[in-house]
Amino acid sequence: MIFTLRHRVAVASTCMHDKANEHSPMSPSSYSISTCSCCPPYDHFYCRHLAHRRRGRAPSPHMAWCPPDMHRPAPVTKSQSMEHKYVELPKKRHLNKSERAILFQMLPYATAAEAEAGLGRALTHAEAAWLGYSATVPDHLLYCHNVAILLLLYTIAPLPLALLELRARRAGPGEPLFSLQRLKLQPRACLSPAAILRCYLDTARVLLLTVGTLSLVSYPAVRAVGIRTGLPLPSPGEVAAQIAVYLLVEDYLGYWIHRLLHTRWGYDHIHRVHHEFTAPVGYAAPYAHWAEVLILGVPAFTGPAIVPCHMTTLWLWFVLRHLEAIDIHSGFNFPFNPTKLIPFYGGAEHHDYHHRVGGQSQSNFSSVFTFCDYLYGTDKGYKHHKASLAKS
């Protein structure tokens, strides 16, 4: 309403305390143009007396919005005597930061002083930086940052692994980097530069179309589950606990979705695209059918829906989940990988066996941890494979 310059309205020309006009409330002769002289310029259409007149009901003295002696209509000129006219409202004005925050569902604090007064303490450096950035950005745009973060991360994070892949492909027995061949889980399978570039371009296009479109339409769900953007920021302990819950929920649900995708119909129509790379590389982590990208987004978002978090925690969760996917698709078994310190973490060796077997694989469906494969007996083929390698 505050952005409207002109409104076509038909309102009563008499006040509830003016008995000069005793026609029916719906009678044309009882209508002309008037405004409530006691209400603010932007609010006079909400005057209860005039609203009752517009709806065709006689106003009640008990529902008067303003004092009786002030509730007088504005003078009506001869040019305004027609039954319907346009009422000129004050010109549009610029909103201040507080009004923009209310209008666009943003942070309730416009300045650091207001935030410190509301929190009762001084802002941390992180909170001051977050306030300075997000105070003028609508929440739905903050949520759409996920698309830019995902594309940037997908472009940069797998790049060192791709360079190692290409270097190992050209390394010979007499070269110092020949040891890279020993670190590769499938030394005889090395991708060409053209194959890696095709993987990157195809995946980036699918991510942009699926994740980008989903981010534009899914913000109401994000807001409904309670993802917040205000202050204070969560503590490190709170973030760590929430990320741990998200990992467990995503791993369990992702395990069963992965098994469903390995049914005959699911593999032939959807999941076979991801298994085109029998010897995966970092860029092949999100390489999949567009339907699989959307399906796997369900377990990734279920955790935040169960345990709502701050928007920054949601960003961090998606970053960590994508880095984990790149790690298990790296194709290398680095001896000093810090993820080896995480209990029950599968890693690249665990998932690489799943890709090596391909569509016939009935092992290693877990994406993060190994306990689901252990509990449901889907790690027997992998154990037999490791035992045979130990004997040779």
TrEMBL record:
Any GO BP annotation: sterol biosynthetic process
One Gene Ontology CC term in the entry: endoplasmic reticulum membrane
InterPro entries given in the database record: Fatty_acid_hydroxylase (IPR006694), Sterol_Desaturase_Related (IPR050307)
Coiled coil: none
Topology of this chain in the membrane: Multi-pass membrane protein
Residues of the Fatty acid hydroxylase domain: 244-378
Keywords: Endoplasmic reticulum, Lyase, Membrane, NADP, Transmembrane, Transmembrane helix
Annotated GO MF terms: aldehyde oxygenase (deformylating) activity; C-4 methylsterol oxidase activity; iron ion binding
EC number: 4.1.99.5
Location (main, coarse): endoplasmic reticulum
Cellular location(s): Endoplasmic reticulum membrane
Catalysis: reaction(s): a long-chain fatty aldehyde + 2 NADPH + O2 + H(+) = a long-chain alkane + formate + 2 NADP(+) + H2O
Family: Belongs to the sterol desaturase family.
Assembly notes: Homodimer.
Entries under PANTHER family matching the protein: STEROL DESATURASE
Name the record gives this protein: aldehyde oxygenase (deformylating)
